Amino acid sequence: MELRAATLDVIASLPKDDLLCLSYPKINLPAEAVKEAFPVTQANPDGSVDAQDLFKAMGAKNIRFINHEREHALEGLVNLNGVVDIEQADLVIDPGVTANCFNVGQALMNVAGAVKRGGHVVHCLPVSRVNYAFWNFSPRVLWDFYSQNGWGVALWFEKDEELFECPATKPIRISPGTSIVCIAKRNTDSVLYFPSRPPDADAIVILR
């Protein structure tokens, strides 16, 4: 799993005292470039920035990493395919782990349940990367799931380190190698449920 420059800018702008990240992600940005923006002091042997060090430099105080398979010593084992109760955080980051969960609906439900009221989740997921993972995501999946649960939602496409407009409900064609970046803000403690049907456009809640 990795986080790119455009997604890191989004993460940096959000409150994150308690931060939960799905996997221990690779930071896809040279250390020198990161150091220009954040007081990062630690780098990996290959010169890349360490994820935990970067999150600390962004202001996170309590940082946890979980994954369904331990790929890093700091990752706790959590199988998102089943119903799990995860300690809540101000910010939950999904660098693409849910795309590797076969029971993807339940995985999204678990991730959303780990967000405190007033907190945010950031997903960075494949849209047109065939055989990259189990799933490619339609923007509508994230839009309908979060908006129908009363969350605020903002969506962008990401390609070649740039973010651009992502229509939430309009059928579109996109080029290979595109990802989606989603920010959702939890506005309520209501019980979460799976979306029943696409809502009317007028009923959609915009991120605020």
Report on this structure.
By secondary structure, this protein is an alpha/beta fold. The chain has a single domain (2-203), classed as Vaccinia Virus protein VP39 (Rossmann fold), CATH 3.40.50.150. Helices cover 20% and strands 27% of the residues. The protein is built from 5 helices and 10 strands. Strands 5-4-2-6-7-10-8-9 form an 8-stranded mixed beta sheet, with helices on both faces. The protein has a two-stranded parallel sheet with strand order 1-3. Helix 4 links the parallel strand 6 and strand 7. The longest helix is centred in the middle third of the chain and has 10 residues, at 104-113. The two termini are 28 Å apart. Mean pLDDT is 87; it is low at 201-206.
**Roughly how many Å is the radius of gyration?**
16 Å
Q: Major sheet: order of its strands? A: 5-4-2-6-7-10-8-9
Poorly predicted regions are 201-206
Largest beta-sheet characterization: 8 strands, mixed
- The figure for the number of domains is 1
Order of helices and strands: EHEEHHEEEHEHEEE
How many E-type strands? 10
By CATH, the superfamily comes out as Vaccinia Virus protein VP39
End-to-end separation = 28 Å
Overall morphology: globular
By helix and strand content, what is the structural category?
A: alpha/beta
How much helix, percentage-wise, in residues? Answer: 10-25%
Secondary structure topology:
Blueprint: E1 2-4, H1 5-12, E2 18-22, E3 26-28, H2 31-37, H3 51-57, E4 62-67, E5 75-77, E6 89-94, H4 104-113, E7 115-126, H5 139-148, E8 152-159, E9 162-165, E10 179-185
Parallel strand pairs: 1-3, 2-4, 2-6, 4-5, 6-7
Antiparallel strand pairs: 7-10, 8-9, 8-10
